[in-house]
């Protein structure tokens, strides 16, 4: 073999953006461009002189194009270690030329999956040769530069213009990016095929979880923290923003609770108001306006600056009422004609969101300084009178309010106590470190409305003290899951005080 070989750049790309300019730039720096199939044709049409892969390997593309670059001549040229006697001997023996640059973008599996393509077409978009080229070049980054993103083309040429070669630091950076991209690519294939084949993800199995940047955020919870919104590939966010300022990190945290509220109340015309990730108002009504006004009445002070979710189409009358108070977000499944435009003009900063079917994860991931916690992300089972147990006089006449209180407590931060009367939360105590304080706060908010109200707790009462508070406030019925070692004392005290207590059996903690 020649002692001084012409440097070679192997280019095999699906995305042709900017590749002609890159190839011309590499050629201007003395690189021989090697390519095949569609890439070679595209480059030649762009005026680039190309050496076909078959001219190096002696083997044309086979199996309908499935095998083009998977050949010892190509892989050996990429993986050969410069200056290593054994590798040099093998290259000499088998006539393997060195390949110094690999440029490769992969088949669009993710885009094909999003298009709803059938399984056979989806499988054909699983790149084999490209991934092999990338991994080989990245492994041998001491000697080979691997380029996997079109955004790096200009940097590649700039590096050559300034230094006439690629520094080790630059090749390391490209190699790390290449491994990240192939790892993400494989994980997308896994998720896409699982979805296509109807295979669900179990909680207790190794997680493969790539994330795509959906939106860069101004900052996180506080200005000193950088942040962004990410989504798994193949997923879309469950809302469309119609107007208003860009969503913030804290808006998106609150939206999680709001979306859960819209889910648990979807069977009725309801309104949920959320502040700092927990409800401060919830109500149902015959119209969106009635639901909103009843929800706002629960805690109008906390509602200021909160976010609103309504489960039905928002009309102009409701929209006008909402604009009388400062809110960050209004979310609903739809808006009557002209409402979105009215909100945009009247409250240009209010973020108006149309809820659409979108990302509804089956698993919930929580990262903290201990690691990552993973649990099933599903709404709790609705209590049934036939499955739970009444202590004291049954009150089926209050069942609708009891269930509404239970639903509200289920989306409220623990410890959670909710008082409901006539289809509206009149007092919500959420996020307290003990249940007595949560009950006292909810009762204080309810004031006289506590008389004749029902009360829900997201977990059992460890002592009868909260039941006694409820009795003094005039609460007539309670729903709680039970499960305390002192259940008998709590149930007995409720009966003594004339409170009807339903033991539902399902705890709904939300930490």
TrEMBL record:
Which key words are in the record?
Hydrolase, Multifunctional enzyme, Purine biosynthesis, Transferase
Q: Name one GO cellular component term.
A: cytosol
Query: Could you state one GO biological process linked to this protein?
Result: 'de novo' IMP biosynthetic process
What pathway annotation does it carry? Purine metabolism; IMP biosynthesis via de novo pathway; 5-formamido-1-(5-phospho-D-ribosyl)imidazole-4-carboxamide from 5-amino-1-(5-phospho-D-ribosyl)imidazole-4-carboxamide (10-formyl THF route): step 1/1; Purine metabolism; IMP biosynthesis via de novo pathway; IMP from 5-formamido-1-(5-phospho-D-ribosyl)imidazole-4-carboxamide: step 1/1
The cross-references to InterPro entries, in alphabetical order and at most eight, read: AICAR_Tfase_dup_dom_sf (IPR024051), Cytidine_deaminase-like (IPR016193), MGS-like_dom (IPR011607), MGS-like_dom_sf (IPR036914), PurH-like (IPR002695)
An example Gene Ontology molecular-function term:
phosphoribosylaminoimidazolecarboxamide formyltransferase activity
The chemistry this enzyme catalyses reads: IMP + H2O = 5-formamido-1-(5-phospho-D-ribosyl)imidazole-4-carboxamide; (6R)-10-formyltetrahydrofolate + 5-amino-1-(5-phospho-beta-D-ribosyl)imidazole-4-carboxamide = 5-formamido-1-(5-phospho-D-ribosyl)imidazole-4-carboxamide + (6S)-5,6,7,8-tetrahydrofolate
Write down the EC number.
2.1.2.3, 3.5.4.10
Q: List, alphabetically, the Pfam families matched.
A: AICARFT_IMPCHas, MGS
User: What are the residue boundaries of the MGS-like domain, all occurrences included?
Assistant: 1-148
Family to which the UniProt record says this protein belongs: Belongs to the PurH family.
Let me see what the UniProt entry remarks about domains: The IMP cyclohydrolase activity resides in the N-terminal region.
Q: Which HAMAP family match?
A: PurH
Protein name per its UniProtKB record = Bifunctional purine biosynthesis protein PurH
Query: Which species?
Result: Synergistes jonesii
Gene name, per UniProt, is purH
């Amino acid at each position: 073999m020649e002692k001084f070989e012409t440097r070679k750049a192997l280019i095999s790309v699906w995305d042709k953006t900017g590749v002609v300019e890159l190839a011309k730039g590499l050629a201007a720096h003395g690189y021989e461009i090697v390519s095949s199939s569609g890439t070679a044709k595209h480059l030649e049409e762009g005026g680039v002189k190309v050496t076909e892969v078959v001219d190096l390997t002696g083997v044309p593309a086979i199996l309908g194009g499935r095998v083009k670059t998977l050949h010892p001549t190509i892989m050996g040229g990429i993986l050969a270690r410069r200056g290593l006697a054994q590798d040099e001997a093998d290259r000499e023996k088998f006539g393997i030329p060195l390949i110094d640059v690999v440029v490769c973008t992969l088949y669009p599996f993710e885009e094909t999956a999003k298009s709803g393509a059938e399984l056979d077409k989806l499988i054909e978009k699983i790149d084999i040769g490209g991934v092999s080229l990338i991994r080989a070049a990245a492994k041998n980054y001491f000697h080979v530069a691997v380029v996997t993103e079109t955004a790096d083309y200009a940097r590649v040429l700039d590096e050559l213009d300034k230094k006439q070669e690629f520094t080790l630091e630059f090749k390391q950076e490209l190699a790390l990016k290449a491994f990240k991209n192939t790892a993400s690519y494989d994980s997308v294939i896994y998720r896409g095929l699982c979805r296509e084949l109807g295979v669900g993800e179990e909680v207790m199995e190794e997680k493969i979880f790539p994330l795509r940047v959906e939106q860069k955020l101004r900052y996180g919870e506080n200005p000193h923290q950088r942040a962004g919104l990410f989504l798994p590939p193949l997923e879309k966010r469950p809302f469309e923003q119609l107007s208003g300022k860009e969503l913030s990190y804290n808006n998106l945290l609150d939206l999680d609770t709001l979306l859960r509220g819209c889910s648990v109340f979807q069977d009725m015309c309801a309104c949920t108001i959320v502040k700092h990730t927990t409800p401060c108002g919830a109500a149902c009504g015959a119209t969106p306006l009635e639901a909103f006004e009843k929800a706002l009445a629960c805690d109008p002070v906390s509602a200021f600056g909160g976010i609103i979710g309504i489960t039905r189409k928002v009309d102009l009358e409701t929209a006008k009422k909402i604009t009388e108070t400062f809110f960050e977000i209004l979310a609903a499944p739809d808006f009557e004609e002209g409402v979105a435009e009215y909100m945009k003009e009247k409250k240009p900063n209010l973020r108006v969101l149309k809820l659409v079917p979108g990302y509804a994860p089956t698993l919930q991931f929580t990262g903290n300084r201990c690691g990552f916690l993973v649990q099933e992300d599903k709404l709790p089972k609705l209590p049934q009178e036939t499955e739970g147990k009444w202590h004291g006089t049954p009150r089926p006449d209050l069942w609708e309010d009891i269930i509404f209180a239970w639903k509200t407590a289920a989306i409220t931060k623990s410890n959670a106590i909710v008082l409901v009367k006539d289809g509206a939360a009149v007092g919500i105590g959420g996020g307290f470190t003990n249940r007595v304080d949560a009950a006292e706060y909810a009762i204080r908010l309810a004031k006289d409305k506590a008389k004749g109200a029902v009360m829900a707790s997201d977990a059992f009462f460890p002592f009868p003290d909260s039941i006694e508070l409820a009795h003094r406030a005039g609460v007539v019925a309670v729903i709680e899951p039970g499960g305390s070692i002192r259940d008998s004392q709590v149930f007995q005290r409720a009966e003594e005080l004339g409170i009807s207590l339903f033991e539902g059996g399902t705890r709904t903690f939300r930490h």
